[in-house]
UniProtKB/TrEMBL annotation:
Residues 2-125 form the DDE Tnp4 domain. Its cofactor is a divalent metal cation. It comes from Popillia japonica (Japanese beetle). GO terms for cellular component: nucleus. It is found in: Nucleus. Belongs to the HARBI1 family. Pfam families: DDE_Tnp_4. This is DDE superfamily endonuclease. One of its GO terms (molecular function) is endonuclease activity. Keywords: Endonuclease, Hydrolase, Metal-binding, Nuclease, Nucleus.
Length: 173
């Protein structure tokens, strides 16, 4: 049996949230829609934005790439989205290189396998914390509190479009 692991990674490649209970055949969006992070965003307990790939539905707090970008702003947005989302791939790479057992099939009972994955995630975060204790924190200059999210594709697309217009359109003065 394979597992599909969902990770929310932070800017220093730390693991902020992890879900280790779905079979490999589970779709990423199904895992997310049943996760504690999703519920906390929906209840308005978390503010900010998440970046996901095209497997996810665009919402008010989960930004996905623009399918078939046309405008220069949409192309720039997709490019920035890919570069920023790369932290997730780097997190998995660092985590797997730090704990080589994660790069191969774990031959244990499912319960022990999930415990090993969770333990290595905690140890990964401790290693980052110890090695980067003096690194300045990355702050967002303007945090916009998000209202309780309703998984509404139309509203999510409008929010993404406004975000693209605000941050990626080149304004000539």
């Amino acid at each position: 049996m394979s597992l599909n692991i969902q990770v929310v990674a932070g800017p220093r490649c730390e693991i902020l949230d992890i879900v280790i209970r779905w079979p490999g055949s589970a779709h990423d969006s199904r895992i997310f829609n049943n996760s504690a992070v999703h519920m906390r965003f929906e209840q308005g307990l978390l503010n900010g934005l998440l970046l996901g790939d095209s497997a996810y539905q665009q919402t008010m707090y989960l930004f996905t790439p623009v399918p078939n970008p046309i405008t220069r702003a949409e192309i720039l947005y997709n490019s920035a989205h890919i570069r920023t989302r790369n932290v997730v791939e780097r997190t998995f790479g660092i985590w797997k290189s730090r704990f080589r057992c994660l790069s191969s099939c774990l031959q244990y009972k499912l319960q022990n396998t999930t415990r090993i994955i969770a333990a290595t995630a905690v140890l990964h975060n401790i290693a980052i914390s110890e090695r980067e204790a003096n690194v300045d924190e990355v702050y967002v200059d303007q945090v916009v509190p998000m209202p309780p999210a309703v998984a509404d594709q139309v509203r999510g697309n409008a929010i993404r479009a406004a975000f693209i217009n605000r941050h990626f359109n080149v304004h000539v003065v």
